[in-house]
């Protein structure tokens, strides 16, 4: 394996690994905030510092193991890089197995994205129910506009998050 090929493999591993770790941490943070809103009295007793460290270690280790095959010099995991390119551009038609494995690894990241989306929707529902309970007696046209504005902002923030987190 040449130095440039090793560098390109390391670059691909570091990029996908960091994206995987980031999106999984964002999913954990979203789930954490959702549980805090939904169960405020039980949260402090259930989430301890030890559990948080275990979750963080699990994310780092699982993402490392998930993307480690990208560095392995196995024949079915050997990408071909364009010779004349100044950057690490993979020739996707050279090794179909490598391409399929990368596609599967990328699609696995939709699991934490779904957790984030469901957490955002759950948080919106909890906040909406609580605001309805507090303002039920004083419901006016301005309150319904505020709820519509809040819904639009939540959808825009979720959409923006997904656009910014795509590789």
What this model shows, in words?
This protein is an all-alpha fold. It has a single domain (3-165), classed as Up-down Bundle (Rhopdopsin 7-helix transmembrane proteins). Helices cover 75% and strands 0% of the residues. It has helices spanning 3-38, 40-46, 49-67, 96-108, 110-134, 141-165. The chain starts with a helix and ends with a helix.
Describe the secondary structure blueprint for this structure.
Layout: H1 3-38, H2 40-46, H3 49-67, H4 96-108, H5 110-134, H6 141-165
Helix pairs in contact: 1-2, 1-3, 1-5, 5-6
Q: State the fourth-level CATH superfamily.
A: Rhodopsin 7-helix transmembrane proteins
| Topology pattern, helix = H, strand = E | HHHHHH
Give the class from helix and strand content and strand pairing: mainly alpha
Total tally of structural domains:
1
| CATH topology description | Rhopdopsin 7-helix transmembrane proteins
Let me know the number of strands: 0
- Weakly predicted, low-confidence segments: none
Radius of gyration: 22 Å
Q: Termini separation (Å)?
A: 27 Å
Q: Determine the mean pLDDT.
A: 77
- Identify the overall geometry: elongated
What is the beta-strand fraction? Answer: under 5%
Query: What's the total helix number?
Result: 6
What is the level-2 CATH architecture name? Answer: Up-down Bundle
Major β-sheet profile: none
Name the helicity range.
over 70%
CATH class, named Mainly Alpha
């Amino acid at each position: 394996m040449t130095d440039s090929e090793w560098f390109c493999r390391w670059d691909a591993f570091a990029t996908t690994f960091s994206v995987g770790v980031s999106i999984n941490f964002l999913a954990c943070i979203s789930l954490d905030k959702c549980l805090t809103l939904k169960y405020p009295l039980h949260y402090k007793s259930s989430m301890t510092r030890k559990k948080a460290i275990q979750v963080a270690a699990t994310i780092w280790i699982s993402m490392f193991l998930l993307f480690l095959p990208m560095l392995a010099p196995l024949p079915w995991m050997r990408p071909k890089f364009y010779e004349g390119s100044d950057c690490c551009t993979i020739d996707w038609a050279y090794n179909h197995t490598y391409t399929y494995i990368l596609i599967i690894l990328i699609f696995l990241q939709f699991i934490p994205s779904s957790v984030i989306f469901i957490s955002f929707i759950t948080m919106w529902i909890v906040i909406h129910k609580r605001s309805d309970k507090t303002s039920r007696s004083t419901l006016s046209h301005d309150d319904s506009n505020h709820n519509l504005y809040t819904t639009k902002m939540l959808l825009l923030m979720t959409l923006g998050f997904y656009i910014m987190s795509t590789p």
